[in-house]
Design brief:
CATH topology: Glutaredoxin
Largest sheet: 4 strands, mixed
Helix content: 10-25%
Order of helices and strands: EHEHHEEEE
Number of helices: 3
Number of domains: 1
Radius of gyration: 16 Å
CATH superfamily: Glutaredoxin
Number of strands: 6
Shape: elongated
Distance between the termini: 31 Å
Length: 141
């Protein structure tokens, strides 16, 4: 059983790149397809607290129903924003990765490198061709 968990959306390039970097460290993480299996309220609140971010920072803004619900207005409480994310999991930004070294929203995907316990096993390039890890397993930037 892995000690790394990723809240993953396979339709998202950032999420796919993050998952690939976890695997490049030699670990097969627990993959939670959060659109199919959303976190509970307690889990979501815990993830937000562990990341040390505001609830609003976890909201995806470029998807419906963000605009339909008027979420760009600063009139909602944190509890209400969490309610929306639980009702519409597409509003939860991703990927979220949990490791023994911390919990992060991995945007950009390279953020995951800061919390992976194991080094990268070899070179890695993102889907767009951007080289992130060199042949020696070292971060390029």
């Amino acid at each position: 059983m892995s000690n790394i968990t990723i809240y993953h959306n396979p339709a998202c390039g950032t999420s796919r790149n993050t998952l690939a970097m976890i695997r490049n460290s030699g670990v097969e993480p627990t993959v939670i397809l959060y659109l199919e299996t959303p976190p509970s309220r307690d889990e979501l609140e815990s993830l937000i607290a562990e990341m040390g971010i505001r609830v609003r920072d976890l909201l995806r803004q470029n998807v419906e129903p963000y605009a339909q619900l008027g979420l760009d207005e600063d009139k909602f409480t944190d509890d209400q924003l969490i309610d929306f994310m639980l009702q519409f999991p597409i509003l939860i930004n991703r990927p979220i990765v949990v490791t023994p070294l911390g919990t992060r929203l991995c945007r950009p995907s390279e953020v995951v490198l800061d919390i992976l316990p194991n080094p990268q096993k070899g070179s890695f390039a993102k889907e767009d061709g951007e080289q992130v890890i060199d042949e020696a397993g070292k971060r390029i930037k």
